[in-house]
Amino acid sequence: MIAIVKYNAGNITSVQNALERLGYSSVVTDDPKLIQQAEKVIFPGVGEASSAMQYLRENGLDQVIKNLKQPVLGICLGQQLLCAFSEEGNTKCLGIFETTVKKFEPKLKVPHMGWNTISALNSVLFDGISSEENFYFVHSYYAEVCSNTSGICNYVVPFSASMQKGNFYATQFHPEKSSLAGEQLLLNFLQL
After folding, report:
1. Residue 74 class from Cβ within 10 Å (0-12 exposed, 13-18 middle, 19+ buried)?
2. Overall pTM surpassing 0.85 (yes/no)
3. 165 - beta bridge partners?
4. Catalytic residue among 76, 83, 93, 153
5. How many Å separate Cα 119 from the centre of its chain?
6. Catalytic member of 93, 133, 139, 176
7. Is 65 strand, coil or helix?
């Protein structure tokens, strides 16, 4: 079973639809037992960090997610919440990745939205994916580059387009909206 974590953040339906296109079924849930029993867990999200973390804490999902042993994929806000701290709402996050999520400088067009390439690819998630491929981004905050960075994008400043630590994988971009390259990335995750 593939569990998609429900936690007061958007974009769940597009992830579920992408999995169905690849021939996989999933369950959208905030039930800790179902999440713990899943073979794979996807932690997507479009939303605001402090309210999302509040929901996770109130429902005990913060501890559940941190203690998962199966492959976990954070997407967009999901990646940011796997970091230690977010400037969005001065939020203490889950702390899987020891880095800070910062807001893009006001001089930039925010949100960073559109298609971009990623460099320094260093994860099994990118198997079969060329460094020339583009991925779709929509975000106003970014995770700083750190030892867990597995792909870098530049939007005036370099930031973590993808991250990995142990069984935790994450992307700032939306693989479910990133055409064939995104489908390949999801497939690579599902086949771990």
Report:
1. buried
2. yes
3. 168
4. 76
5. 17
6. 176
7. helix
State which amino acid sits at residue 46.
V
Q: Are 102 and 142 in contact (CB under 8 A)?
A: yes
Cβ atoms of 17 and 176 within 8 Å: the answer is yes
Told to judge if 58 belongs to the known catalytic residues of this protein, a careful annotator would answer: no
Report residue 113 as tokens.
Answer: 């939205």
Q: Is 176 a catalytic residue?
A: yes
Q: Do residues 115 and 126 make contact, with C-beta atoms less than 8 angstroms apart?
A: no
- Residue 76: active-site member: yes
User: Cβ(90)–Cβ(134) under 8 Å?
Assistant: no
Q: What is the pLDDT of residues 47-102, one digit of tens each?
A: 999 999 999 999 999 999 999 999 999 999 999 999 999 999 999 999 999 999 99
- Break the chain down into helix, strand, coil percent, rounded to 5: 30, 35, 35
25 burial type by CB count under 10 A (0-12 exposed, 13-18 middle, 19+ buried): exposed
Using a 10 angstrom Cβ sphere, with 0-12 exposed, 13-18 middle and 19 or more buried, the burial of residue 20 is exposed
E-assigned strands of 12-129? 26-29, 40-43, 72-75, 83-86, 91-92, 97-103, 112-117
Of the residues 48, 93, 174, 183, which is catalytic? 174
- All structural domains of the chain, each given as residue ranges with its CATH number in brackets, are 2-190 (3.40.50.880)
The predicted pLDDT at position 156 comes to 85
Per the structure block, which two tokens stand in for 108?
């930039």
